[in-house]
Design brief:
By secondary structure, this protein is mainly alpha-helical. The chain folds into two domains: 61 residues, no CATH class; 137 residues, Orthogonal Bundle (Arc Repressor Mutant, subunit A), CATH 1.10.10. It is 49% helix and 8% strand. A three-stranded antiparallel beta sheet has the order 3-5-4, covered by helices on one side. Helix 1 packs antiparallel against helix 2, helix 5 packs across helix 8 and helix 6 packs across helix 8. The relative contact order is 0.11. The N terminus is likely disordered.
Length: 224
């Protein structure tokens, strides 16, 4: 039943009850049928006066069904034009860690290449085999050293190219805010063509973007 029907039905019920109650009281005072009619007319007039005092805006608000809440869509895909329109990004430790790894690993890459590296980091965050935070992933070590060599190569990590950092920081902010991850097909590893790490033979190559080749773990089945 619509709000308008409900409201109208309620008003009619009130009118009927008001008239009925007034008629009952009047009949109890007199057997004159004209008194009953006068009482009903009086009740109707009072109801009409009350309705006349309600503003058109209020009536519209009461009789209009509420609008459905607008669904929040996914974050927009990152394009160069969209990125250029974004303000200087800010954020806490996790944002800074992602911006740093993009600067040191992909500042010379295309926009797609930078997004792809960010995907690897965030895919690792979602994978139970890796730390559950961006900073944990970026600074994770193993028995051979570090997952990202720039974090433990002994060189200074000071940002010298501020323009490049401003670009990758916007990418980091957008990716943390939920931008699509659809370039690397769930990759959690990458390397440059200059090397051929032994682990790459155990993983599935998903794509190559710029100077990086991307991999994901093979799908495990009961037979393997």
């Amino acid at each position: 039943m619509s709000v308008l029907k409900s409201w109208t039905g309620g008003a009619m019920l009130l009118l009927a009850l008001a008239g009925g109650l007034r008629a009952e009281v009047t009949v109890s005072q007199s057997n004159d049928p004209t008194a009953t009619e006068q009482g009903l007319l009086s009740a109707l007039w009072q109801e009409r006066s009350a309705l006349g005092a309600v503003t058109a805006k209020r009536i519209s608000a009461i009789t209009t069904a509420p609008k459905a809440a607008r669904k929040t869509g996914a974050a927009p895909a990152i394009t160069a034009q969209w990125l250029a329109s974004q303000p200087v990004p800010t954020g806490g430790e996790q944002f800074q860690c992602l911006a740093s790894v993009l600067y040191h690993e992909a500042r010379g890459e295309s926009l797609e290449g930078q997004i792809a590296v960010a995907e690897v980091v965030l895919n690792r965050v979602d994978d139970v085999q890796f730390p559950g935070t961006v900073c944990g992933v970026v600074h994770q070590g193993n028995n051979r050293g570090c997952q990202f060599s720039w974090t433990c190569d002994g060189r200074s990590d000071v940002v010298r190219d501020r323009q490049a950092y401003a670009q990758v920081a916007k990418v980091a902010r957008a990716m943390l805010d939920g931008a699509p991850r659809d370039l690397t097909e769930g990759a959690t590893y990458f390397h440059t063509p200059a090397v051929r790490p032994s682990w790459s033979r155990r993983f599935v190559q998903t794509t190559r973007i710029g100077a990086h080749i991307f991999y994901r773990k093979p799908v495990q089945t009961a037979s393997n």
